[in-house]
Amino acid sequence: MAIFLLVSAITALSVYAIEQVEAQRGEAQHRQVATTVTAAIERLVNANAVYLRAGALLSPGLAPSSRDFAAFAHQLSADESLRSGGTLGWAERMASDQVPAFEARMRASGDQGYAVRPRALGGDVLPVAFVYPADAVGRRGLGFDMLSEPVRRGAIERAMRTGRPTASGAIDLISHDDEAHSSGFGIFMPVYADDGAHRRMVGVIARGFVAHSFLRDALAGERLADYGIALHDAESPGSQPLAVLGEQAGAGRRVTREVVLADHRMRIEISPPAPATLSNLSLLTLLFGMMVAALLLIVARLVTQQAAEDRAALAWFEEQASIRNSLTRELNHRVKNTLANVLSIVALTRRRTSNIDEFVAGLIGRVRALSATHDLLTQSEWGTTPVRAVIAAELAPYAQGTDRAVAMRGPLVELAPNDALSLGLAIHELATNASKYGALSVPGGRVEISWEMLTDKLARIDWSEHGGPPVATERRRGFGTELIEKIVAHELRNPVDLRFEGDGVCCTLVVPVRPPAAFQIRAARPAEAGE
């Protein structure tokens, strides 16, 4: 997981660095687009301003005739770079009282419906005399007094002061019938006559532009992709844009440039296209990084899992080796104890018998007693063995009759393996003696065996015979007595009370009851647990 997180962090940092570079590259591209747009608009405005300045010199000292104006307009329209959706016009300056004579002259020249509008009550007027193109749409502007409208008046007065072509702010184009694109602006160039005594303005040559068409034509040759372009009148803050191309983004993402077009300040706003969530390079880096991180995570997981399995296998082998060692030590210890018991039995049997047959018979019986108890211990995997099971195994040959000569009663008491072997040997000797000389040697005799817990660590087992032959007061101590009083008492670490009553033999054994952890093969020994 640490490797995965590290690679993921490196990938995230790489993507962040790439996005920062992409953002800087995008900003540089946005600025370049803004510069391109500004230059294209300036170029078109300046070209028109130059032609208007040239038109002002068309007929020095006189107002241009319709023929002169038509020739000039034809030359202007022949230049593809100046086709920008505009209408070229000539407005003649005169006093308001000269308007009737002017209207008569214009009507006499062929325009029967010519009239100046709106009518001025005094002062100078500047009605449009000629337009190009002279189609139905363009002719709507004929007769309009350009001084009657404040925005046009302001631009014309500024042009008169400077003597240069001057652009206006936003105006409604009279000659345009498309309400969606009727907003525009005009460029006005005053024409002067000099009679030697003084210089006077005789009129204005002007070009009106539909802002949307002007912007579209100015940027026709530029590669702007999905950029949004808006043209604003910078001298009228808060006003609606003159023209908009494309979609406008939020104000925080716009690139704004202010430019002076024919002595009038305009503002150009560039809206970059909505950026992708991540650039292609970032997506490739992210994908590759995630693949590497996932691959490393899988490899690390496999290696970790293999290491865990190896550790588990080593632990299992160590456990098995420890169990084998413990089993070997335990079996060695128990075999030695069993062999010691057998040797003791052999030695005592040899001393207490006078012929080989008696020796063999006694030895076989006692070894079989040990074997029967061993079978019980094997079944319990050398764990605890119930007292009832040990006694039942040793008395099984004598409890097959229907007279029930053997009776057992007592609670569940579990003995350790060595203690069970010693108890089984003692019960065998008592049963053998009872079958030869005691209660089990005659019909009607019976043996009662009971046990109980003295403490949580000691159990008492009582053997009593009834109904057997009378017990002689003078008797020879036999091997069974020696075995019980010496070997069994030594193994059980408690004295054995063996009594020969007149009614039969009585024997009381005290057997230790130990917890399984003290003798089980796989239990941790105190010494090992402390290491």
TrEMBL record:
Catalytic activity, reaction form: ATP + protein L-histidine = ADP + protein N-phospho-L-histidine
Keyword set includes Chaperone: no
E.C. designation(s): 2.7.13.3
Residues in the signal sequence: 1-17
Location of the protein in the cell: Membrane
Transmembrane segments: 281-303
Keywords: ATP-binding, Isomerase, Kinase, Membrane, Nucleotide-binding, Phosphoprotein, Rotamase, Signal, Transferase, Transmembrane, Transmembrane helix
A Pfam family per the record: HWE_HK
CHASE domain sequence ranges: 127-219
Every PpiC domain range: 23-103
InterPro entries listed in its UniProt record: CHASE_dom, CHASE_sf, HATPase_C_sf, PPIase_PpiC, Sig_transdc_His_kinase_HWE
Keyword Membrane attached: yes
Name recorded for this polypeptide: histidine kinase
Gene source species: Novosphingobium bradum
Lineage, top ranks: Bacteria, Pseudomonadati, Pseudomonadota, Alphaproteobacteria, Sphingomonadales
